[in-house]
Amino acid sequence: MTTTPFQSWVASCLTSTTPNTTLKSSARTHFHNLSTPTNLSPSTTSIEQDISSASASTPNGALALLVSSLRPVISGSSDEARINALYCLEGALEGCTSLTHGVRQAVGYFLVESCRNTVVNNDELFVDGHGLSEEEVTAKLRALDQKLSSGKKNDASSYSEEVRDCALSCLKALLQSNLDMFPTSKSKSGSTVNEALSVLHESLELRMDLSMKGVSYRCNADEWIDSERAMNAGDGYESNYYDMYDTILSTTLPRAKRSLCFSLLDGALDGFHQDVIKIKSLSANNVILPTNVKRTMIKFASMTARCIHDETDPRCLLQIFRLLNKVQRVMCPLLDTIASDDGNGSMEIDNILLLFPSTELFDAIAPYYPVQFTPPKNDPHKITQEMLHAALMAVLCEEGVALHYTQAVEDGDENMVIHAARMFMERLDPMRSSDYQSPSGVDSEEVDKLEAVGDLSKLLLVSNSTGEEEKGKKWSLNMTRVSNGLLSELSSVLSRIHEEAVSKHTTDTWKSLATSIRQFASSLAQSLETFAVSTGGKDNHNSSSWEAFVVSTINRLSPSLESSLQGMHGRASTAYLASLAAGGGMESLNKVLESCIPRFLGVLSRIDKDSRDQALAAMRGIAALMSSCRVAMERWEKENNGVKIHPHPLASYLPAILERISVAFDAGVADGEESLLSAAVAAMESMLTSADLNLLDDVHVEQLSSAFSWIAEAVLADGSSNESMITFTSEWKKSCARTLGVFLAVGLQNENQSSSRLHTLAENVFPRVIESATSPTETQSYHPEWITLAAACSNGTDQIARKIVGVILTKSVGALQSSESDCSPLKVLSFMCRNGGPRVIEAFHSLAAPNATYLDIIHELCKSPSNDANAKGQLSVGISQLRLPATITQEEETCRSVVDAQIERADSILPCLIPAFESPLAAASFGIIVDLLNQLLPPLSQWDEAKLCVIAPLLAAILSNAQDIRGLLSDISSEVLKTMIGQLSEFIISSKHEMKSRASAASCLFSIFLDADVEGLAVSEMIGDTVSKSLVESLNILCSDGKNISAYGRVHDIFNFIGQWGSISACKGGSYSSCADEIALFLVEMACTGASSFPFSKTLVELALQSEDRDKVSMLPALSFGSMISVCNGNPFWRQRIVFKTLPAVMRVVQDEAKSQKSPPLGPLTVCSILCCLPSSLLNESHGRQVAPLLIAGLVQLSKQYIDVIESESSVVDVLGINLAAIIKMLALAPDCLIRFAGVIISSLLRLCTYTKYNEWYFPMQLLALQCLESMARIQLSKTVKLREKDRVINALVNVIDHPSVIVRQSVVHVRNFWYSLS
């Protein structure tokens, strides 16, 4: 007899003593092969036919046969066999691509019973009422309930926890499987579509029913079911199963098992969603579900919500939050309807029972808001408070829910959005009777309120919505699901909290809160207005929503603009309404202007001493509203492709506003009152930038011209011509200067319009402003006219900016040609670049000949001075006029002095020019600057060096501020880049050139090196060849002449360049990491052994010098290595990598030095550098004990020769400082390694501390030594050592109390007192 695959699987289940996961994979593969398209054929059989005629050749038949084969094993007594059987069944379900409804139903109910705590015979849970009377049926039901409640469950054995979990996993795989579209029985109507829809409706209900039963049984709900049957006996012919979902006690399970229950519900939703998609395809997206299906959906959602009760584990909370949001996305669009078909052709209207249970979901999750969670340290699950908050907000905001209607919401209606909005509002403004308290995790009240505003934004604004129906819209559907009463209440809360925040502007958080409220209110007003306009104004609810939020706020706040304008309420109301006007849409703008402008004008109609404060507040309010008008109009034009608004919103108010401001301005001039004038000038500035001046008649234009003539005189006068301006502050002049700049921007661009009077005035004032701005000054660092020009460029057109920048460049070139010591035009240009907006930078780099350009300035800075006039003329005749030629040395000295003077002049000018190249917009001039630099490389004369001092900083400024450096460098060929890098390298390491020009070249080189898109090793090899040759040549010179200062300086420069090269390569990473590794090893070996192969070139470099000269030169690579690993940019792990690569080589030297009897050289400097930069986690006790003797030996040697150290070069002092810093770090991290050297360390430190002469660059070393002394007193020394060293330290420090340096004296006293207090 042939053994089928199922029989072999059954045998494996029975014989395996441990869970056999191989069965699962085998079953999955087998059923996946059966489910391939070639093996599938439509199934039109019934449930009974599928099971009775099961065939192993079809997925449905094979699954039915497998279940019947495994049923005895699962019902057996061996847990291992049960688990293996369920593994096999789960693999089979995962392998099936689709199942018929009949097979899913049969397998599902079988698996549901396996989730119980006991094995129950399904046949005994029912009473056959055929041929029985009502009394007999009732009696049998009572007997069944008594039997179940007494615990007699048909002698069935209990399932283990593992078996029930496996059954739950199988059930999830079953419910996730796809549905075979063909019905399981023939329909009487004969309609294929109706048959398919009927099966799909049954499938929807089955998936939900099985998942709810599985969770209920897994949570041990049997006892409650039994008691429920006893109470409801006689109500029907079968026991009530759905009532068990009313009490789900999933929190009694361990976390992993609760998570498994949630996963089952999630899998049922996946299958449910697949069925809904099929229904949409069959019904042309018109999904109409029977009433019984909808009721089951409501029960499913309610049960899922109750699963969260008492849940505290963050992993389960995150899972259930996401599950609830999935329930909303899948079911909410299907339940949010009014009428439904009950399946029998009738329509049932049930607005309460058939709606999604949003209130129940809200009640379940509301206790978790706001989320209070602090993750433990080193949390492997990486769950954060932000993740939990985002998942919770997804449920509260119903993210991803695709609603298909916008139904009017009346006061008293309830939905998730209304509930969430009220909860957020309560957090924002807790009522006195409310029990809400700020969470303990929130630092302050304002932070709590700020988070509430953010949550309201997520709820009601479109930017945070992910629903498919809202893509491309400018409003959120959530916004339309709140009532007008709630919107009115929200507007009241926002304005009230805004006033509170404004009145408490004590911290930045309160300011942020006020700003956030204004932004949210204006955005919501804009959305409401856009929604109302898009519906054509036909829906009264849509327009009334905007009125409820915007108009009610205006009507409530605007009366205060007359009664208490100068008070806190008036100021806060003005700011709130101005923000509403700026960002709330054009209807909101017009409504605010209509309600507020007349009130402000009414206040300004009476300006006297008693009402002066109100007048000031009114003018500031008018200025704020006009600025809001400008912002709103710019936003409108941007959103509507440049279409301008007609008529202008300020058209009807502009004449009256100008008259009131002119009266206030004249009153301020007459009384000499600065505050009134400042308010009037600010209002004029807002009017110029916001209003259309062409709407003014001649009388009003004349008023405006007179006012600005006076302002121009105030800005341009030095104070002597107008005594009334002498007492005004600089802030007043700045305000006038800004306003004058705006006037110039408006006046200069109105040449062809009707405002010719303003244009003429602007043309007359402009030359005076330029002349005054570019005149030298010694009394102040800037002119008010600079502000005027910057404001004109910022508020004017591109043409005006080019005009102003062109005039400034022309004057700058003229000043440079006349060799003025104070180049004021360039100072003006620098100020304009920093404060005039992007138009200044664009104009600076776009101007071309015949106008003056920045290239003319560069040419003047790079131009060599002309020869003496007599040298150019004809030679004088006569022997007495003959002159001997100057020597070469004299010519070089003369040329050098001229070059130095030119470089010094360039240094004074470049700070004014560089701001124009520090903007990303300067990338337009990148190619020109590169060409100029290439013409100077290699520098062939001292004048080329002077030119490099000008060009290189400009190129470095462009590279350091460009947004896409790779894009800029891609326009230059790789060969040009490589040539430039090689020539710059040679120039930098050459000591023959001027230091400032070399520093500028280094800045350019490393900016290019960081971002050049060339192969790293090729560039490294090119630089290596150049540098290695120069280093070997310089060392050979030192071998023959150890006192050669020039060669020593060149070696010093080369090692500095190598260190910088290594740090740049390490920061860049990638293919350059190997370059950094080789450079680090080279520097370490040179410092420790005096010989190493140069990176890439493989040239052997040796310090073949005498002992004294060798120690002096060995400091240079050590210092260079210390500088290299001290860089903090780049990846945070590259320093650990470098230390890991170099530490073994250093430790070998340390061990050799420990065995040597000779005095240690200055090689320990490398060890000190590594210790200073090494992370504390990498410094273990073993390393500390190995390097401690070397550190102490170096300290002793330096302390014995401290007089020579102090009077030697600064590099030796650097060695001492690094040595002391390393000892301080050792004392902090591994003090036990230094305890046995306490006496030696203290003696050496006392020698370094007792130097009493005045030497500024040695003071830091003394402070470090004193810090070491204090640290020595803090470590765990023995009592004998402390007492012995205490007297010696106190007596030695007495001599330093009168040190010339104050900070050293204070430190000495502090350390001496600390040692004196030791007991």
Automatic annotation (TrEMBL):
On whether DNA damage is a keyword of this UniProt record, the answer is: yes
Q: Which GO terms describe its biological process?
A: DNA repair; iron-sulfur cluster assembly; protein maturation
Q: Which UniProt keywords apply?
A: DNA damage, DNA repair, Nucleus
Q: Which InterPro entries match?
A: ARM-type_fold, MMS19, MMS19_N
One Pfam family of this protein, by short name?
MMS19_N
In this chain the MMS19 N-terminal domain maps to: 247-398
Which SUPFAM superfamilies has this protein been placed in? ARM repeat
Statement: the UniProt record of this protein carries the keyword Isomerase: no
Q: What does this protein do?
A: Key component of the cytosolic iron-sulfur protein assembly (CIA) complex, a multiprotein complex that mediates the incorporation of iron-sulfur cluster into apoproteins specifically involved in DNA metabolism and genomic integrity. In the CIA complex, MMS19 acts as an adapter between early-acting CIA components and a subset of cellular target iron-sulfur proteins.
Its recorded name reads MMS19 nucleotide excision repair protein
